[in-house]
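User: Before I run my own analysis I want an independent prediction to cross-check against. Here's the chain; please return only the C-alpha cells and, at the end, one sentence I can use as a sanity check.
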Amino acid sequence: MFDLVKKLTGIFGVSGNEEEIREVIKSEITGYVDDIYVDPIGNLIAVKKGTGKKIMLAAHMDEIGIMATFIDDDGFIRFSNVGWVSQYYALGQRVKFKNGAVGAVFYEEKLDEMKNLKLSKMYIDIGAKNREDAEKKVRIGDTACFVGDTVQEGDMIISKALDDRSGCAVLIKVLKEMPETENELYFVFTVQEELGLRGAKTSAYRIMPDMAIAVDVTDTGDTPECELMEVKCGGGPAIKIKDRSIMAHPDVKRLLEESARELGIPYQYEVLEKGGSDPGAIHLTGGGVPSGAISIPCRYIHSPVETVNINDLENAAKLLKKCIAAKM
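Assistant: C-alpha cells:
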C-alpha cells in the first residue's frame, strides 16, 4: 500500500489540472475492469459490470495548490489559492509548477505582525532575474502544488496530497482485488473536489447510482491542544455520520457498521463540523442517492505534511470490499 500511495502523491494534480494523475491511475487499473472512460469534466470512471444494484465508489484525484496571478518587474510571483490554502501552512514552503519549475513561498518583510499575514502579502521566488526571465518559466494562470516527500515512519505515512490520493489508493486496491458480487460497480476518481465537489456532482448525474460510498480523509482529535474530535490515527477507518455537506444515509451507515463488525476490524465515527466531501454532492443527484463515506483519519490536512496511519488505509480497503460484496 505504501508504494502505491507514494506513487500517487508524487504526481501533479492541482484542481482543474488533473490530467497527469488521471493517466497514472488509469495505467494502474487498466485490465481490471470492463470499461474505463473519462467524462467531459475530466472524471475517470471505471466500470465492473453486473446485474445487481449500481454502486458508485468515489475518491477525488485533485489536490490543493496555488495559481500565479501577477509577476512584478523583479520576477517575483504573486498568487491566489486553488482550494483552501492556509497562509501559515504555505509560509516557507516550496511549490512546483506543472512544467517542473520550483519556487519558494515567502512574505513581504514590511509585515508588522504575523497575525496579519495574508496570501495577498506573499510571493513566490523562482530565482528569476526580472519579469521577462520569470515569464520563461511561469505564466499568469499557471498552477503549482506544494512539495512534500512521501515517507513512512513506523505505521505513519507523511506526505503532501494524502487528501485524497490515500482514498484513490484504497479504491485502486479494492478494484484490483475485486470481490465476487452481482452489483454493478462504478469506481469514480473525481476532479475539482477542492473547488466545491464539482466532479462528484457531474459523475453522479451521469451514473445515477442506487447507492454511493466515498473514501476521503477527515480531521483527527489526537494532537496536542487540538479541537476535540472522536477520531484518531490508528483507530481504524471512520464511518461518516455528518459533515457540512451531508448527513450520511442511515442504510449506508448501517452497512458500513455491520461490515466492520463482521470483519472484526476497528472503526470509529466521524462527525465533522466544518468542510464537506464528495457524497455531499452525490446524495443530492436526481431524486436522491443514499450515500455515505469511509473516512481516513489524517493529521495536518491541507499541509505538505499530511499524516495517516497505514493500518487505517488497509482496513478502509477491507471494509469497502466487504460492503460492495453485500447483497442489497
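Sanity check: The radius of gyration is 20 Å.
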